[in-house]
Write a structure and sequence with these properties.
two-stranded antiparallel ribbon, mainly alpha, transmembrane helix, single chain, transmembrane, Cold-regulated protein
């Protein structure tokens, strides 16, 4: 089985999470495929905006999707 595991959390009785981090990783990859080329193009003209676009999957998408599932 391929997936992400997060152990040591206090969000559930077994103290391990598999489903949330795995979905977060998948959502991160999908968002990165779309946003990184756009961010690289924008970076040519506006450096700060391009960095913000390229960092969006790691800063926003992964944590939101991963934290919505306590399992």
């Amino acid at each position: 089985m391929v997936g992400c595991v997060e152990c040591g959390t206090r969000r559930n009785p077994c103290r391990c999470r598999v489903f949330g981090p795995t979905l977060g990783c998948v959502a991160f990859c999908v968002a990165a495929v779309v946003e990184w080329p756009i961010g690289a193009f924008v970076y040519i003209f506006k450096h700060i905006k391009g960095k913000r676009i390229m960092g969006h999957p790691a800063r926003v998408v992964y944590p939101k999707v991963s934290n919505c599932m306590p399992i």
